[in-house]
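<goal> How does this chain fold?
<body> The protein record starts here
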Amino acid sequence: MEDSSASFLGNRYWVLRHGKSIPNERGLIVSSMENGVLPEYQLAPDGVAQAQLAGQSFLKQLEESKISLDKVRICYSPFSRTTHTAKVVAQVLNLPFDSPQCKMMETLRERYFGPTFELKSHDKYPEIWDLDEKDPFMGPEGGESADDVVSRLATAMLSMEAEFQRCAILVVSHGDPLQMLQNIMHSAKQHSGGDGGLAEWIQMSRVASVLSQHRKFALLTGELRPLL
């Protein structure tokens, strides 16, 4: 299980953006918990195929790293598209989805873009990302700022680090949260040689010059990537 981040984190992490969903196909922003958990917003057929490929790729990487399946944990957002993705990956790995190895975490949910953008066109995303670049502490009206999302992702990371030891953790979430998670953890790693622990290193990274740059870690639907 040794890797370049072994001294920094107690587990190894991969991130997976959900497969292409019905909202993706329809060009809709579905970001509220109320809408996000609805079954009509789960994966489209293409997204199921993407999730299967991601599961096969993850399995191959586990085998290459000589990581046994009993060390695997799948932590996923409660939205229907991420739950569906996590279920497909668990099937590929032959892990029972209702076992302790698979855990729903509300802190991994989609970024809420606010009522102005909910169920509106995907074409609106650049407006929000422009706002993030200008001021990542300011969210769209009624929605979450980049820093708001990072705050709960920090809680998710600390929770996983506390609960699991020397595990291979697949984090199944959404585009904005996963690019923000990668961004903040790459920055936190730069602080990790100093005093303190993970909470302090993440806190040091919650500055505008870091938070505003999350788009460089963007993922395609169904894309799997090591966190670090």
About this structure: The first strand starts at residue 12 and ends at 17. The beta strands are 12-17, 72-76, 102-104, 168-173, 224-226. DSSP finds nine helices and five strands in the chain. The two ends are 14 Å apart (CA to CA).
